[in-house]
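Deliverable D4.2, example record:
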Amino acid sequence: MLFTRKSLLISLFITTALILFFLFINFLGAVDHFYLSFLNAAIMMVGLYFVIRQTHKDAGKDFTYMKGFVTSLAVGILSSVLFTIFMGFYMFELNPEIAVMLNESLNLASGTTRGPLLFFILLSGISTAIVSSLIVIPIFKPSWNIKQSSRKQEIIENYTS
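Output generated by the structure prediction step:
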């Protein structure tokens, strides 16, 4: 199953943390400092760690990289979509000055602000989810201990001879 109750809750946690971080940066007046968006990646990575850990616990020995990656990617995409919806509402309805400032800073497309800006936010979130998933999944990788590998090699050699 792609989404479980826990993975949906973690997705909402990630979205809430991203929104609170944005509102905090906005409160400080530091929205134009793009390097602070790196902390969005840290928030996403922590959330995806918990999703992959939960998937690993639920699957047990049946855990695969693909299962962990697909679940974490789905949670990351959902969180990115929800955050993009919030940003669209906030930037274009509550505080349009941010949209103008971001459009001038990013130079995404001349004359249009909504589509390219929201697309940029969405793609940033999805790419962060992909990279974060690929960074976190090896933590749950089964050991390739030399003793275990040599034992498997012995079994293969005995079977083929």
